[in-house]
């Protein structure tokens, strides 16, 4: 007689089905490694002001004791340590090994959007000038300054259709949708985006981070587009901007890894809208108790979203950016009870609440940055979301 089946095979879903099943309130995440759709709340993970990795590990252990057979912590953490966070152990998690893949996507309806830049573009360029003064005065080496676009439509935004367009537009991106509703919100609030930047992943002992910094907007003409890519790779200013991030990510991961491979030179990766300098760093974790979320918390905020030195950059951001970033430039992802997981930098994203959408884009400022070019770069970064929303590009 054949032995009893002790392990029930976990249902494996199709990536496209998980995307189709997403509804606001769920957590959705997809990358080249697969997709995850999570529903309901088994437990909230609370950790005021940090050590969320420890709180997540405790919540996962409690979920196992309560009989949850495959608990995962999913969610988003804001830019500031004392900022917002939305982390839960969901009641139900469905996974697909493959990403969402191709599939039909209804073209974006073309609603009449009212668009308000915050701050005004000229004020953003002024803030970049002031950051350059701080850099000239040797107070800072790098700071990332962001700006927002507030869009208002005549009717509520269909978040599932927006998410599907983001996933289909760039299957290589890490696309996500997270419920970030807060008390006082007039309607459910969703953080939705397609980040090109892997903060860190851990699978077994393998650790991967893929910092990006140093960017050029893409153009339709192929020859000019190739020229921009080559110019980015040759740009001393962009290489310096990138080196800060790669060095800091390598330094932090070096504390946790027994092997670390850091390529000496950046490469260029492309999204449909941008070229970016990229360094793929790989390592082997020294202590298996260090979870993907613990690594992510140690790395955040990297100089891809904050700056160097980090405390002065934080102060400069607080002084020079008129809006609180909230979840923008934080992290989104998941971690499981084995410590495996994947966390991305919360960029190329928007918060959607009923008919209102806030987009965020930032750019790294270093010696040699040009305020108008940084304004144009942030404008180009908005295109990921503007295209998916069917709004006019700016
Ligand atoms: C802060 C953003 O991008 C960061 C990540 C990649 C490249 C960046 C840059 O070239 O400035 C930024 O550091 C954003 O897209 O909003």
From TrEMBL:
<keyword id="KW-0413">Isomerase</keyword>
<dbReference type="GO" id="GO:0009697">
    <property type="term" value="P:salicylic acid biosynthetic process"/>
</dbReference>
<feature type="domain" description="Chorismate-utilising enzyme C-terminal">
    <location>
        <begin position="122"/>
        <end position="381"/>
    </location>
</feature>
<dbReference type="InterPro" id="IPR004561">
    <property type="entry name" value="IsoChor_synthase"/>
</dbReference>
<comment type="similarity">
    <text>Belongs to the isochorismate synthase family.</text>
</comment>
<protein>
    <recommendedName>
        <fullName>isochorismate synthase</fullName>
        <ecNumber>5.4.4.2</ecNumber>
    </recommendedName>
</protein>
<dbReference type="InterPro" id="IPR015890">
    <property type="entry name" value="Chorismate_C"/>
</dbReference>
<dbReference type="InterPro" id="IPR005801">
    <property type="entry name" value="ADC_synthase"/>
</dbReference>
<dbReference type="Pfam" id="PF00425">
    <property type="entry name" value="Chorismate_bind"/>
</dbReference>
<dbReference type="GO" id="GO:0008909">
    <property type="term" value="F:isochorismate synthase activity"/>
</dbReference>
């Amino acid at each position: 007689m054949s032995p009893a089946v002790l392990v029930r095979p976990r249902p494996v879903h199709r990536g496209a089905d998980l995307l189709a099943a997403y509804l606001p309130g769920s957590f959705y995440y997809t990358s080249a490694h697969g997709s995850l759709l999570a529903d309901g709340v088994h437990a909230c993970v609370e950790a005021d002001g940090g050590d969320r990795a420890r709180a997540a590990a405790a919540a996962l252990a409690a979920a196992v004791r309560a009989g949850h057979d495959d608990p995962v912590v999913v969610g988003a953490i804001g830019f500031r340590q004392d900022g917002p966070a939305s982390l839960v152990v969901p009641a139900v998690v469905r996974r697909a090994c493959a990403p969402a893949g191709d599939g039909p996507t209804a073209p974006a309806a073309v609603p009449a959007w009212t668009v308000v830049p915050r701050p005004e573009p000229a004020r953003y360029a002024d803030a970049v000038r002031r950051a350059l003064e701080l850099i000239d005065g040797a107070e800072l080496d790098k700071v990332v300054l962001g700006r927002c676009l507030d869009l208002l439509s005549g009717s509520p935004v269909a978040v599932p259709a927006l998410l599907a367009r983001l996933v289909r537009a760039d299957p290589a991106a890490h696309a996500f949708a997270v419920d970030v509703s807060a008390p006082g919100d007039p309607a459910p609030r969703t953080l939705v985006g397609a980040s090109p930047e892997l903060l860190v992943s851990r699978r077994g002992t393998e650790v991967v981070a893929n910092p990006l910094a140093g960017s050029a907007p893409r153009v339709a003409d192929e020859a000019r587009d190739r020229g921009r890519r080559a110019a980015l790779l040759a740009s001393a200013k962009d290489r310096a901007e990138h080196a800060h991030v790669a060095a800091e990510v390598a330094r932090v991961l070096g504390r946790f890894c027994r092997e670390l491979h850091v390529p000496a030179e950046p490469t260029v990766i492309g999204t449909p809208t941008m070229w970016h300098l990229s360094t793929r760093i790989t390592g082997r974790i020294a202590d298996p108790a260090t979870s993907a979320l613990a690594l992510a918390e140690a790395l955040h905020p990297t100089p891809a979203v904050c700056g160097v030195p980090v405390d002065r950059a934080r102060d400069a951001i607080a002084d020079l950016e008129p809006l609180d970033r909230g979840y923008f430039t934080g992290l989104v992802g998941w971690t499981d009870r084995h410590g495996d997981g994947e966390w991305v930098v919360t960029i190329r994203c928007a918060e959607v609440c009923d008919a209102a959408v806030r987009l965020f884009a930032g750019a790294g400022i270093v010696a040699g940055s040009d305020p108008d070019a940084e304004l144009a770069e942030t404008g180009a970064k908005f295109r990921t979301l503007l295209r998916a929303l069917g709004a006019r590009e700016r």
